[in-house]
Amino acid sequence: MNWPEVKAWRKAARAKLIGARIAVPPAVRAAWSADLAANLRQVLAAASPPISFYWPFKGEPDLRPLVRELSAAGVAVALPVALRLGEPLTFRHWQRGAPMERGLWDIPIPATTTEIVPRTLIAPIVGFDPAHYRLGYGGGFFDRTLAKLGPAAQAIGVGFSLFALPTIHPQPHDVAMTRIVTEAAPVDLGDSASPVCYLDEADPAYRGFLSDADLAAALQPLVAALPPERLPLLDFLLWRLAGAGERAAAETAAPAAARDYLSRLLPRIRDDAIHRAVGILSRSIASEEK
After folding, report:
1. What is the mean pLDDT of residues 102-126?
2. Structural domains of the chain ordered from first start
3. Cα separations (Å) of 126 from 45, 90, 219, 232, 264?
4. Cβ(172)–Cβ(149) under 8 Å?
5. pTM of the shown model
């Protein structure tokens, strides 16, 4: 795709992913954030300070407990500051009790003019691909910042494994993350490759799993049974599985029957992230019955 096509694709993908992330129940997001923090803690044991984090926004992983822990242990911690569109980020020191003010988009930032230069940047991701390219919010802040800081700065993308994409269609101006850390993926502290698994390359149907197209078709009739706040999550799954983002118009059975239908689908889903998302939909339907 050319850049205008990629730009349009990213805009649509960004809306799908952010909507789905916000639609994940808060308790589930909190549990995922805790698991992500545990994985990230291992990675940061070998990282160079100062370390720049972020203040959570639009359902992003909440790593503030880890930030407080590191700061209390004497690690220099910073928060990014976006001053103007089209410019790199600057960074200000943060510690517990530091005065805060509202920055761009009303995101809290340290109320000081003293800046520091981080050597490790924790970058929240909307989506990501196997080459460690990050789909962000479209402002280009992190790309410009990493280009300015150069190879001395390590960038670690953090996000939920559900939002892994085959590609974000990287462009020359995109900067790949040093690594991606999620709540689910094992933390890779070395460069060794995983063993070849030929069975995993076989047709999913050969192993009794649903294909992406079959799973998308199976999910379509469930719209009427879902709580409205979970519909963006289903929209994302349909878009991710089959390139289809339209909600089905078909009616469905009562919520209990829909939940039973989802539970029968679960053993036939090969992708762990999609399996978890379908489980969330099932529990959401169950909560409507109470």
Report:
1. 91
2. 3-181 (3.40.50.10420), 199-289 (no CATH)
3. 25, 21, 23, 15, 30
4. no
5. 0.83
